[in-house]
Write a structure and sequence with these properties.
Oligomer: single chain
Structural class: alpha+beta
Radius of gyration: 26 Å
Number of helices: 21
Helix content: 25-40%
Shape: globular
Mean pLDDT: 83
């Protein structure tokens, strides 16, 4: 049964929902204003480095492309305008650019979200839904390059390296529902949101550990609303990653203060009531039954250049049924979590459907925080380095992903501008084609560390990973043993248990999926895992040169210069001049295709955190195959009227 708001104070909300025009998908009356948001750079930032040659679906929209979209959208305003009387039966003309109308349908496990409070949620699927209902101060123009663009605020003025002055978009408003009732967003609202994250208190004023990003927001030394439209933030010290890590991160949502105070802890504790959301975003919740969420375009959405579709339906269920849903045109795209073999079969059935590829969000990696507790020789950094390139990456790519993948360096190849040039990477041990040379170097490193006479290496494989890729643990065990001559003992443990045991100090090699990067900029992650003072640095030793580079990254505000420093860090790691216990191996490539009536924003196919780009994707509802019976659900309240 669909969950809808109840209670006296929700009467206005229900009436507004009942009055909302639930357009039929076949209607062709409205089109959107032109223009996709262009990226802005502050004076001390340079554009990202020139895009590397990658599959077309990973390319980011450039300025000429956006200008073309703007022009075509302007043309479509005339082509799809309301028809004169007597012409309703005429064949609708296909739009040549973004046009309003229709309902996008996509598969998403909405039944696996955690909580609706935007400040106390942390599941990726919740974030995907929130991304269509909320805005941030800023957002990534590209989650793979790290360039930022305006969202609720324009890109800030940075008068000095610890001060940020934001200007709130004067058009920004909260949803036109209780309790916000469509009022304007102010700088005070944003200040309140920041302080709520920093204080991390529940409705009774007690500390609440569910505010998972408190540490990030504590990087704000002060927050002051100087006027209704101006916000001044400061940090205690120069922090070049502050904007990307805090205010444009995947969970940096701004919500309505009155709603948060009214909902209290029900917002945290009741995952069934989607109407507890109160945002500024392009889509508002219409119906939710635990397995399917339908969002409708906000009646007072304030940014004209997006929210092309009338609504978006996100449906979950047995993943084995996704191909059937695509066959029935119930979903508009078919990719993750389908296997590539299933997608290839769909591509054969629908050769006219557009195809795409996207890198999987989580790379396969080895964690090797070995120490003297495992054996005298195994604590030697030469052993960790030998293990790091003992894995035959091309062979592993073929085994796990049927060749649909690429080797990952210290940063995966799809992080545009940040990752090392592939020409350099493939010349280094572990990435080059000369496997015999790799085996010789590995043997020499082990011999230099005292030989293969120490304790066996425990190799723990996550049970979930092994279940998804049967035999993967044994394959990696054999590669390490062959390349190093070391004895490797294989065992399987629960994913969560293994990570907890590593954090508790147990030492073993671990094979599984790595964490999904929350932004392209690795400064914070490296400060945590590589710097000698890092909170999550699981291997010993001090490297002053590496520490200095990471510290310089934190105080370098020019994006290009910071990326150059990042390249130096990666070269140190790959050349063995610094120890990295976190060893990326490969990143799989997911194949996909989409229905011919869907015109996706190219950024929809980035590696993670891209669901918000559904709002800048559009539908050609005039396409001959578009399902004419696809429409937003009609509420009971409207039916009663």
């Amino acid at each position: 049964m669909s969950t809808r708001p109840s209670g006296g104070h929700w009467t206005t909300l229900r009436r507004r929902l009942s009055r909302r025009t639930l357009l039929r998908a076949s209607a062709r009356a409205g089109v959107g204003a032109a223009g996709l948001a262009l990226v802005g750079c502050s004076d001390d930032e340079e554009p990202a480095l020139q895009q590397q040659t990658e599959p077309a679906q990973n390319a980011q929209s450039d300025r000429p492309q956006q200008q073309s979209v703007q022009q075509s959208a302007q043309q479509s305003m005339q082509q799809t305008a309301p028809e004169p009387d007597g012409a309703q039966d005429a064949q609708p003309q296909a739009p040549s650019g973004p046009a309003r109308g229709g309902v996008i349908r996509a598969w998403l496990p909405v039944d696996r979200h955690d909580r609706w409070d935007p400040h106390r949620s942390r599941f990726r699927y919740t974030q995907a839904m929130h991304s269509l209902m909320y805005n941030r101060l800023l957002r990534p123009d590209s989650v793979s390059s790290g360039e930022l663009e305006a969202d609720l605020c324009a890109l800030p003025e940075i008068p000095d390296e610890t001060t940020y002055v934001f200007t709130v978009d004067p058009a920004a408003v909260f949803w036109d529902d209780e309790p916000a009732n469509g009022r304007a967003v102010t700088a005070e609202d944003i200040r309140w949101n920041i302080e709520r994250q920093r204080s991390a208190l529940d409705a009774d004023g007690l500390p609440d550990p569910h505010f998972f990003r408190r540490a990030a927001y504590d990087r704000t030394a002060s927050a002051e609303a100087t006027t209704d439209g101006s916000l001044r933030l400061t940090t205690d010290a120069p922090d070049a990653a502050y904007l990307s890590s805090v205010h444009s991160s995947p969970f940096a949502w701004i919500t309505n203060p009155e709603a948060a105070e009214h909902f209290g802890d029900a917002w945290r504790d009741d995952p069934s009531d989607v109407f507890l959301n109160s945002g500024t975003g392009p889509y508002t919740p219409l119906l939710y039954n635990g397995a399917e969420l339908t969002l409708a375009r906000s009646s007072n959405w304030w940014r004209a250049e997006s929210a092309w579709a009338d609504g978006i339906t996100l449906t979950s269920g047995d993943t084995s049924g996704i191909a059937g849903l695509y066959d029935a045109a119930t979903v508009d795209r078919a990719d993750f979590p389908l296997t590539n073999a299933t997608v290839e079969a769909l591509r054969e059935r629908y050769p006219e459907h557009p195809t795409f590829e996207l890198p999987l969000a989580a790379s396969v990696e080895l964690l090797a925080p070995l120490s003297d507790e495992v054996g005298a020789a195994l604590g030697d950094p030469r052993i960790i380095r030998a293990i790091g390139f003992a894995v035959d990456r091309p062979k592993l790519t073929q085994r796990l992903y049927d060749g649909h993948g690429r080797a990952s360096g210290p940063l995966p190849w799809f992080l545009e501008g940040w990752a090392l040039n592939e020409r350099l990477t493939v010349s280094l041990p572990g990435y080059r084609e000369d496997r015999e040379a790799d085996l010789a170097v590995a043997a020499a490193l082990v011999a230099g560390a005292g030989g293969a006479t120490g304790s066996p290496i425990p190799l723990v494989v996550a049970d979930l990973f092994e279940g998804f890729f049967p035999g993967s643990g044994e394959a990696v065990r054999g590669m390490i043993a062959e390349a190093t001559g070391l004895e490797v003992n294989l065992e399987h443990r629960a994913f969560a248990d293994a990570i907890d045991q590593l954090r508790a100090g147990e030492r073993f090699c671990f094979l599984g999926w790595g964490a999904v990067p929350q932004q392209a900029d690795p400064t914070d992650a490296w400060s945590d895992t590589l710097h000698s003072q890092g909170a999550r640095r699981w291997s010993g030793g001090v490297n002053p040169e590496l520490d200095a580079l990471i510290e310089q990254m934190r105080t370098t505000f020019n994006l290009g210069a910071r990326q150059d420093l990042g390249h130096q860090v990666q070269e140190m790691l790959l050349r063995g001049e610094a120890v990295q216990w976190q060893i990326p191996l490969i990143t799989g490539i997911q194949l996909g295709l989409h229905q011919p009536w869907l015109h996706p924003d190219p950024r929809l196919f980035e590696y993670a955190w891209s669901t918000d780009r559904l709002s800048t994707s559009w539908l050609n509802t005039a396409h001959e195959s578009y399902p004419l019976d696809r429409e937003l659900p009609q509420l009971e309240a409207e039916a009663d009227e």
